[in-house]
Design brief:
Layout (H helix, E strand, L loop, with lengths): L12 H20 L4 H8 L3 H4 L1 H13 L3 H7 L2 H21 L3 H29 L2 H32 L4 H20 L13 H21 L8 H23 L13 H31 L4 H29 L1 H19 L8 H16 L2 H10 L6 H42 L5 H34 L27
Helix pairs in contact: 1-7, 1-8, 1-9, 4-7, 4-10, 5-17, 6-7, 6-9, 7-8, 7-17, 8-13, 8-16, 10-11, 10-17, 12-15, 12-16, 12-17, 12-18, 13-14, 13-15, 14-15, 14-16, 14-18, 17-18
Length: 500
């Protein structure tokens, strides 16, 4: 364990502050480029299917890197990991700013991702070992503020910058900030780590990369233009599934696994993982479908769409410290049940959109939905992590972040597929009803009505997903930390006790 990062001692606020600022910049970068993709296409002369790799590649590298963070956190000090992660992120940002061809820009994004992927598990692990369970909700709530607020303002900030400047300004804005944080980390972080005799199992690394990378790539490709008809989807998913099974089997037999799946022996962690995965899948219905509906059906500009989503994003982020305090006081179940009830109800209302739904009604409904979501993710995750013994914290945080990546990819692909199928069905039925006398203008209108039907049906599917998560939330109990034991195959000595 890193010196000065024990639960019993005073939390290392300076280390946490430096880590949080670094994490904020890396999280902000995750969504900063999305709005600029169209400008990049025109400037670097690439197609839509190519430019999407700036997002897909970033996610793939993160998905491959995150499972290794459990090993890295145990092997190296916080200072060393932070400096390496921030250096990679800074180098990637500088290269992205001066990239004159697409392959260099893509390489820059992947370098950024390799640094960014280390930041979140590292910060979360420091938070877990620095605060006792009774104060951890408040601490994780502040962490949630960073986690939620950075990507929330990303699209809006990006839209304003791209509208007034070149897309390269996005990199020029981040680069000096990242460099200053790197220097501050070099000066201020002083923690030390006793020498740990651990070696990375490269067979596990390859299996993990093929497993999680294959699943992420397969589901991401399924969400593209060709959908599930693309054979690469099934090849990637097949390779990913087989590799993941082999990876899990190998980890279960190792004395020191790279990613310890024994975390799922702890019932509250397993339950939290199930709820957050379902929530992730359903949550993306709003991120995907509301912008499509606003721009394609209502004809709202991208900038106004971003502004419409901003209040909900800010509310979600701002509520995080508050829900953290409530979690410390009341536990996770009452928050999760209340939040999921709100999220389920508002998602159901979203399944009844009309061709002329008002802008401000959408803004208000989205804000209420995000208010509900804010009461679920961080309290549920923290309650699950609370049950793990200290030596499993790195594995728990790595597992959480990996599952978040995978469930986001699955949710995106699944929802896009459902929307496309239902949209085509509605459009064909409407055109058939209109008959041969339909004018081009009428056909266009019927196409929009078909899209609206597909969006509504997809929101209905998301409603049932959230309903399933709501049922699971009733089984949440306040978790207490299981005692540490020597060895990799420890038994659960303490189960979740007490009702919330």
């Amino acid at each position: 364990m890193n010196k000065g990062l024990n639960v019993s001692s005073r939390p290392p606020y300076l280390i946490i502050a430096v880590l949080m600022v670094g994490a904020f910049i890396s999280f902000l970068n995750n969504t900063l480029l999305n709005v600029a993709l169209t400008s990049i296409m025109g400037d670097l002369h690439v197609e839509t299917s190519t430019v999407q790799w700036l997002t897909t590649g970033f996610m793939l590298v993160s998905g491959v890197m995150i499972p290794t963070t459990a090993f890295l956190i145990q092997k190296y000090s916080v200072r060393r990991l932070f400096l390496v992660a921030m250096s990679l992120f800074t180098i990637g940002t500088i290269v992205g700013a001066i990239a004159h061809v697409f392959p260099i820009l893509l390489a820059a994004r992947m370098i950024q991702a390799s640094g960014s992927a280390i930041m979140m598990p590292l910060l979360m692990n420091v938070m877990l070992v620095s605060f006792p369970i009774e104060k951890r909700g408040t601490a994780m709530g502040v962490f949630g503020l960073i986690l939620m607020f950075a990507p929330a303002i990303g699209p809006t900030l990006s839209g304003w910058i791209v509208e007034h400047y070149n897309w390269r300004a996005l990199f020029y804005l981040v680069a000096p900030i990242a460099f200053v944080i790197l220097i501050l980390g070099f000066i201020l972080l002083k923690d030390k780590k006793e020498k740990v005799q651990m070696r990375l199992d490269f067979t596990s690394l390859i299996m993990s990369s093929l497993g999680f990378g294959g699943l992420l790539y397969g589901f991401s490709t399924a969400g593209g233009d060709d959908g599930w008809s693309n054979p690469i989807v099934y090849i990637s998913l097949g390779i990913g599934a087989i590799s993941l099974i082999l990876f899990i089997t190998r980890q279960s037999k190792m004395e020191r696994p790279m990613l310890n799946f024994a975390v799922f022996k702890y019932p509250m962690f397993a339950l939290a993982s199930a709820i957050t995965m379902v929530l992730n899948m359903a949550m993306f219905s709003g991120f995907l479908l509301i912008p499509i509906y606003a721009q394609a059906v209502l004809g709202i500009s991208p900038m106004k769409t971003g502004l419409m989503l901003l209040p909900g994003a800010i509310l979600n982020a701002g509520m995080s410290p508050i829900t953290g305090r409530l979690f410390d006081k009341f536990g996770g179940r009452i928050l999760a049940v209340t939040g999921l009830a709100i999220a389920t109800g508002t998602t159901f209302v979203f399944s009844h959109l009309e061709m002329d739904t008002s802008y401000h009604y959408l803004m208000l409904l989205h804000a209420i939905r995000m208010f509900g979501m804010s009461m679920v993710m961080m309290p549920v995750s923290t309650n699950g992590l609370n049950q793990l013994p200290v030596h499993l914290y790195p594995h728990g945080t790595a597992m959480n972040n990996t599952l978040n990546q995978v469930s986001a990819a699955i949710g995106t692909a699944t929802l896009i597929t459902i929307m496309s199928i239902r949209q085509n069905t509605y459009t064909e039925d409407l055109i058939a009803s209109a008959g041969a006398n339909a004018t081009p203008e009428m056909l266009k209108q019927l196409g929009l009505q078909g899209m609206l039907g597909g969006i509504n049906d997809t929101f209905l599917v998301a409603t049932f997903l959230l309903l399933a998560a709501l049922v699971l939330a009733f089984f949440i109990k306040r978790a207490r930390r299981a005692e540490d034991t020597n060895g990799a195959n420890e038994k659960v000595t303490q189960k979740a006790v007490g009702n919330n």
